[in-house]
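Write out structure tokens for Threonine dehydratase.
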Amino acid sequence: MTVSYHDIVRASGLLEGIVAKTPLVKSLTLSNICQADVYLKLENQQYTASFKERGAYVKLASLTPEEREKGVIAVSAGNHAQGVAYNAKRLGIPATIVMPKNTPYTKVHHTRSHGAEVVLTGNVFAESLEAAGRIQQERGLTFVHPFDDPHIIAGQGTVGLEILDENKDIDTVVVPIGGGGLASGVVTAIKSRRPDIEVIGVETKLYPSMYEGIHGKEFTGGGVTIAEGIAVKQPGGLTLEICKEKLDDVVLVEESSIERSIQMMIEIEKSVVEGAGAAPLAALLDHPDRFKGKKVCLIISGGNIDTRLLAQVLMRGMAREGRLVRVRIEIPDVPGALSTISALIGEEDANIIEVYHQRHFYDVPAKQTDVDMVLEVRDTQHGQQVIDRLIKEGFGGRLLGNTSLD
């Protein structure tokens, strides 16, 4: 069993007016940073903020009337769940989505809002998958696989067709890989019409499943990743077969680069992306020589990132760039001392974000206290300027660890 170019063309016709033909835009700033012509295929602008609704609709539309009446079941903690739930509602198909118990509430809420029955069970994905199998057998439901299904692959492949139709000057496409459904479809579509275009997959180093599968290595994926959408320990049999035959390369990226890419997409492109969606940009950051001077299309696969995590990523990014610094200041334990240093910091146009006032647990004299502060500054030079002013005014001050001023 395989997926042909004609399957993807048929899927494209089926999706006409159903899913958005997302923008393909050039980023001048990212092009300058990466020393390549960088284009962004913004699948995070789909209704469910992910490419997943393409394949989900194609799969659901293929069901027989009997299968539609009985309903479908899927296992997912994220984008696949929403893609199936949303399109099942559009087609009048009952949907059951099994999600791990620790799935963030927002994802559960969005999935339920599309009319699906959500079953929260299992501490890990494997336990949820096992539970879904039991429910499927009991109710006679059709299982909608997240990636290893010809209809799913064909639907995801329509992203590749749109890239070809929108910009014929592309010479490289970078696609995130989890189970391989998107990569399989995209590479099939592109290589069928333009075999000269390189299609390169990208995975996080914590979950290099497709890279290991293509190279005949043992699957070793594991750990906590910011790119949970591509945290798949083993690719599908069909997707591995297609990617092994057609992909030009698979590159691996660091977690820190994915995190930085999320921040860059927010600050430069004003576009919210999740970890998996940021992985293609991370590939350019981690492998600059591989893409230098090329016309590269990055498939930004989704934008469903938890808001708390996004806030954390942005604050950590500011710390990496020296715009947030931690300082320890020695002050006499007398009334007004804290007010004095606060005024000095304000005079230097720095902003106090957090204050930790400690008398008892630091190794300091009884009549002295240490104050730890997190300051927002313009850059590293400005941060040093604040420290110098404090020292000049007679307060002992120094930078603490994990700041770019160390």
